[in-house]
Amino acid sequence: MFSFVRSLKAALVNKVDGSEMAGVQxxxxxxxLRSLGFMPSQTQVRSVGSICSSLKxxxxxxxxxxxxxxxxxxxxxxxxxxxxxxxxxxELRLLHDRDGxxxxxxxxxxxxxxxxxxxxxxxxxxxxxxxxxLGLMPVREFGRLMEGAAxxxxxxxxxxAASAGxxxxxxxxxxxxxxxxxxxxxxxxxxxxxxAIPALTRAGVTFYNPQVDEWSPELVAVEARAKDEAxxxxxxxxxxxxxxxxxVEIAHLIATGxxxxxxxxxxxxxxxxxxxxxxLSDEEADDLNRAQMFICELAERVGxxxxxSVAAAxxxxxxxxxxxxxxxxxxxxxxxxxxxxxDYALGSALHLxxxxxxxxxxxxxxxxDGAECVLACRSLAPGISPDLVAGAVAAVxxxxxPPAEWRLDFDTWCALMAEIAVQLRSLDVIAWKPTSxxxxxxxxxxxxxxxxxxxxxxxxxxxxRKHSMTYFNPQVKGWSPALIPIEKHAQEKCKHLxxxxxxxxxxxxxxxxxxxxxxxxRAVTLVINNISxxxxxxxxxxxxxxxxxxxxxxxxxxVANRSQCAIFEDVEEAVHAIIAKNG
Length: 583
Hints:
The chain has 583 residues and is an alpha/beta fold. It has 22 helices and 16 strands. The strands form five sheets. The protein has a five-stranded parallel beta sheet, with helices on both faces. Strands 13-12-14-15-16 form a five-stranded parallel beta sheet, sandwiched between helices. Strands 1-2 form a two-stranded antiparallel ribbon. It is globular and about 75 Å long. Mean pLDDT is 79; it is low at 62-77 and 102-173.
């Protein structure tokens, strides 16, 4: 009988260390999933890593008798244990089945090295096994858009566009004044002069360069007009400048559906880390990286290319602008990154696995015996056949025996869930349906500055309760990327979105979120305050840092004003305005 878990182990042997699959480190997850033909978003990959980290408590407590437990876990558990990896791949496999193959972007590689179908005598068998395992049909293999592939990418894009019959004119009505707007990191960066402008000039592509020696608020309107008149918007977010205003710009432009290409380079942490020639604290690096992560998550959801090379991003933009392609048309060109199912909370099945496992782990030793395992499986699928359960247990553990001999630790339980879900061909079997407040319709989403701020508890929540208005409060201790899908779900359920960008926090990610929601046309009410002197002193912010953060606030106010969103300086006034709107 076909076994999903056994086939997956066979598919991944030699992918990590040449031995039977024991799991992967968090940093290897993206590569492993792509080798299997899936293209998860980086937000999904980070979320899986975060969930697995939070589930380390599921390991057996010290002194527990685990001698008889069937375990796929190694002696030193990696970031993504084997069973958890099986469950994540099962989610992707079942999403692929449900939507008719929309998640697959390439042929599964089972050959142990290289990509695609592999080579040598085993490649045919590998291809057969890959199709059996994931149900994929061979499709074109897409380039990685790395710097060394720039020339071939441009030719491939033009050739693919022509062969697909894509139009060569009219990405927007009328001829754009500028084909490419060069946005993103400015002084002291030189990527425009060194890389972008020479490439654009050689290709005969017109551009607008907003980089100036001294920026002033009056330039916001000038740059906005230039962006409106450009066909493509190239934004580079590197780690040489804070670029807070660029974060806000990009979020709004992506949300409004503009043609955008991104290149991102994360900020580094640790002793000696610098930005714009100044020492970068870990707290500031976390704030900037969190904002970058929100932008990448937004971009991936709508198909905006996110690259890690300025040269590759420039070349893709040159190719698209020269052909007068739109973002939608670019997705049909070979070489353009593609993602699918980016709204799905990948790894959420692990929460369900944890909930069920803990419910039936009667003695708390983190091991399910046979009777507990049978009941747990019936919680997954009430009408499940005992023979199917027995077969799945045998497939996962490699041993055949009666339930009295079964001993499953948590990671083996995850693998068993994956096996059962694939055998039943049902994503619903492992779909986690949280019963949190985010799943219920609310009136007001209380977004914005978090940290040690108290504006929610002191002002907003008492006023909303007084007027019988429901709300969702995203402020938690120990925030992680795994919360992004829950917060997005809550935003969709809320009628009003209140975002407070106060002067006592950097709030870079909050500005990104607010700008994107404004761009989506949501009912956003804003409270914006510049960085206070007291916070600047306590956080040891340089004059340049304060200027950058306040510039981001200026850009947020500008996009909100142009979208006719209400902007306040006082939280109480803003909440009263929302209450009045609600009638």
